[in-house]
Amino acid sequence: MPVDAEQARQFTPGTLVVICAFEDIPEHKFEVQEVFEDCVGGYSRTGPLAGEYGEPDFEMILRVIR
Q1: CB 28 within 8 A of CB 42
Q2: Local structure of 46: helix, strand or coil
Q3: Domain hosting residue 10, numbered range
Q4: Fewer CB within 10 A of the terminal residue: the chain, N end or C end?
Q5: CB neighbours of 11 closer than 8 A, spacing ≥ 6?
Q6: How many domains does the chain fold into?
Q7: What is the CATH number of the domain that holds 29?
Q8: Is 29 helix (H, G, I), strand (E, B) or coil?
């Protein structure tokens, strides 16, 4: 079950989550650095976007790893 907005707003820097697959990018781990009103900012840790900054919407977060 995807993470809801209320849960996502409680994330702190370093929270590791799983982002759902989209377009041609597979599901991957993402480390949160900032929490915004409707998305999180941070870096992909696995997959083809590893090391890249992104701002996925809360709806894209599948689950929290740590």
Answers
A1: no
A2: coil
A3: 5-64
A4: N
A5: 17, 32, 35, 40, 64
A6: 1
A7: 2.30.30.30
A8: strand
